[in-house]
Design goal:
3-stranded antiparallel beta sheet, alpha+beta, 51% helix, elongated, 134 residues
């Protein structure tokens, strides 16, 4: 079997983008983990090696053979990578936070414009509390 061809970047898991930046990604089973876009192929390859080390890959599949411990890999690599699922959850949490902030702003505006409704609501719930203890 002929040896596998390395990509144009010269590193495993690193692709050159038309913009001149470099994408890094690694596969874990059926899941493709996108590690991010980097300014240099070297940074992208370091990120690939850090995740490969965490996934328990052999040193032969890594780009740099000068790293002997996991701590060295993490120290040389850019910030930790996140999966698409984590990105999706993050976006979802940000959207929920925006909705909650909007709701709070609208509630405060309502309370400012209709203080008699606020007083009536508070009185209603105070009465309900009293009925619990009777």
């Amino acid at each position: 079997m002929p040896p596998r061809r390395r990509p144009a970047s010269g590193y495993h898991g690193v692709r050159a983008r038309p913009s001149g930046r470099f994408d890094a990604e690694i596969r874990s089973g059926d899941e493709r983990i996108r590690l991010g876009t980097f300014d240099t192929a070297h940074e992208a390859a370091r990120a690939y090696d850090a995740v490969a080390w965490q996934l328990g890959r052999s040193r032969r599949s890594m780009n740099f053979h000068d790293v002997w411990t996991r701590e060295q890999t993490e120290m040389l690599a850019p910030p930790p990578a996140i999966t698409r699922e984590q990105q999706r959850r993050q976006r979802e949490m940000e959207q929920r936070l925006l909705i909650a902030e909007r709701d709070e702003a609208l509630r405060l505006e309502w309370a400012r414009r209709f203080p008699e409704d606020v007083a009536a609501t508070e009185a209603f719930y105070a009465q309900k509390e009293e009925e619990k203890f009777v």
